TrEMBL record, chains A, B:
Keywords: DNA-binding, Transcription, Transcription regulation
Pfam families with a match to the protein in the record: MerR_1
PROSITE patterns: HTH_MERR_1 (PS00552), HTH_MERR_2 (PS50937)
Stretches assigned to the HTH merR-type domain: 1-69
Protein name, as recorded: MerR family transcriptional regulator
InterPro entries per the UniProt record, alphabetical: DNA-bd_dom_put_sf, MerR-type_HTH_dom, MerR_fam
Organism: Komagataeibacter melomenusus
Annotated signal peptide: none
Keyword Zinc: no
Keyword check for Aminoacyl-tRNA synthetase: no
Amino acid sequence: MRIGELAHKSGLTTSKIRFYERIGLLKAVDRRSNGYRTYSSQAVTILGLITTAQRAGFTLDEIRALLPSDLTRWDHATLMDALTRKIADIEALQARLTQSRVHLLRLIEDIQARPDDMDCAANAHRVLTNMLAEHPEALDVTSDDIRLLDATDRRQSVSSGRRKKTASR
Amino acid sequence: MRIGELAHKSGLTTSKIRFYERIGLLKAVDRRSNGYRTYSSQAVTILGLITTAQRAGFTLDEIRALLPSDLTRWDHATLMDALTRKIADIEALQARLTQSRVHLLRLIEDIQARPDDMDCAANAHRVLTNMLAEHPEALDVTSDDIRLLDATDRRQSVSSGRRKKTASR
DNA sequence: GCTAACGTTGAACATAAGTTCAACGTCAAG
DNA sequence: CTTGACGTTGAACTTATGTTCAACGTTAGC
């Protein structure tokens, strides 16, 4: 079959198929005398496999490293290893997303917890201070800086509890 | 303070800080007569805020849209809306990661479940058939999802799996 | 006055996964 | 023989988030 039919059968665009060939991902391609590419029905399977692997979180580079030229000759050990590591990656990512989500939820709560007697500006400052104090990892916010931040508006800064301390530098 | 000190205090590189300024994200900058940038301590806060928001899955574009020039004057409604939607995004992504993880686990099981009397080639074919049969329809991963992913981790794409029949064993 | 550390700029480069385009070739039908 | 659908190529473009580089200016200390 020619590229248009393969595109139709695989649900991919012709440009994507040609791109996969260009980067050495799809080698199951022949040429007719007129220069046209021809594919066997195996190509549909391979493209389906690539798409599936991509959805499972593999990059095209990873897929290329795993995909054998002969679909019946997989590198069993390498494949299982890659699958296992990908699962670990996913789990790590899930943990981070959970953290992110909790952080956002806490932020929403914190914003809504504005004391009745506090104006918006002061509340913004309170929330901001809490938030930055909560995530000192990347930020070299010294306690001096926190105090400096507080100093820009001396209203009450109701802490929602946990305020981590940063190492001074 | 000059850019070097700001970089040090914020934990970012000077090139990143200049980049943020270039794209209109960091407007809190003045110039001395010699052309040097100078920053107030507010800039540290703003950069911390940007970093935190990025970790929570916001793009720089989104952050720019939300970040007020005056840190005490937030658009409350817009902000809360953005936070709420970002949480929903995260939850959707988590659901898909779970699907992806389950799919990979099932694939590993399936590969290991090779009948004693089946050779590797036939097993490869069996597993492949099962797997492709499991993904009959294309489920799109939007660029939005990818971006949220990238924000928390460097490059791991995502999938969603569809339930299936357990075929020829 | 020299040197080192710091600052400035615009432009190019990097990544991943493609898309788009112009200019051209092939082929079947009318 | 013309038209339209399909195919070919290489190069440039895309998005997001920066980094790197060359060439140059500024400043503090010796």
